[in-house]
């Protein structure tokens, strides 16, 4: 488990507020190198016909989206299983989790805000009274209000139903600010949106690793989207997290012991003929 992710201070802040910042997980040079690989991945995705803008997701094409990152470059397969990321995920969700998605959002000057949402509300019906999802956000550039930082409502991790959303929610939004190389951990109950980039020439590049409890259906069918070469390359542990094995999540939270083990006193009576 990543030590920074499991520090008492990080976990306490995450539990209380639904988010935490882990500084300098990547060096500035590593963040810049990953950003270069992200742009190359965007070009590779475009060459295969994958759009980088969806009209239902973002108000204009200045938000550049890159999907299926795990297929596009080995660096993304490294980051999704990074000890700091997995440490944070296991601290919140336990060892029973799945990798649901891994995408990028580059907010270029002029980009607008997407819908106001919590990640858990997108995949699970209310009430949202438990944390069953977690986002690990890799900051590849500095992130601040003007260049499109993700905006969130403090305390919204306590909203358990849609009726709890106040009518003045837009006035309550605050930016997540971080430096290139930092990781933001945000649980699935925090309500947020992408910020507007009002700068003239500054991009904001983030990677979003989305992890859930394994009983929640993954957003991406990795068996369909990852090539055989990539599937064969990943570790057995990663195969389990991606749901690539024939059997998934059976017994993860259930009790599948034989009945004689579940109720030993009755088994003894049966054996004695009583």
UniProtKB/TrEMBL annotation:
Transmembrane segments: none annotated. Its cofactor is Fe cation. InterPro entries: Phytyl_CoA_dOase-like (IPR008775). GO terms for molecular function: metal ion binding; oxidoreductase activity. It comes from the Eukaryota. SUPFAM superfamilies: Clavaminate synthase-like (SSF51197). Pfam families: PhyH. Belongs to the PhyH family. This is Phytanoyl-CoA dioxygenase family protein. It comes from Aplosporella prunicola CBS 121167.
């Amino acid at each position: 488990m990543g030590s920074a992710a499991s520090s008492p201070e990080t976990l306490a802040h995450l539990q209380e507020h639904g988010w935490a910042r882990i500084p300098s997980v990547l060096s500035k040079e590593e963040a810049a190198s990953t950003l270069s690989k992200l742009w190359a991945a965007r070009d590779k995705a475009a060459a295969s016909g994958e759009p980088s803008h969806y009209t239902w997701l973002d108000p204009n094409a200045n938000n550049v989206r890159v999907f299926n990152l795990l297929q596009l470059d080995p660096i993304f397969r490294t980051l999704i299983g990074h000890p700091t990321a997995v440490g944070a995920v296991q601290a919140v969700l336990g060892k029973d989790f799945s990798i649901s998605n891994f995408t990028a959002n580059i907010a270029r000057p002029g980009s607008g805000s997407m819908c106001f949402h919590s990640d858990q509300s997108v995949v699970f019906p209310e009430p949202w009274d438990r944390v069953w999802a977690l986002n690990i956000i890799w900051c590849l550039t500095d992130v601040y209000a003007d260049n499109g930082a993700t905006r969130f409502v403090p305390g919204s991790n306590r909203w358990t139903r849609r009726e709890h959303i106040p009518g003045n929610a837009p006035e309550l939004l605050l930016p997540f600010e971080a430096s290139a190389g930092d990781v933001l951990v945000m649980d699935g109950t925090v309500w947020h949106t992408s910020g507007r980039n009002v700068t003239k020439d500054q991009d904001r590049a983030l990677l979003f690793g989305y992890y859930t409890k394994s009983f929640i259906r993954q957003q991406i069918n990795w068996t369909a989207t990852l090539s055989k070469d990539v599937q064969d390359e990943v570790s057995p542990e990663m195969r389990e997290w991606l749901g690539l094995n024939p059997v998934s999540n059976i017994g993860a939270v259930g009790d599948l012991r034989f009945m004689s083990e579940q109720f030993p006193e009755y088994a003894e009576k049966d054996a004695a003929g009583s």
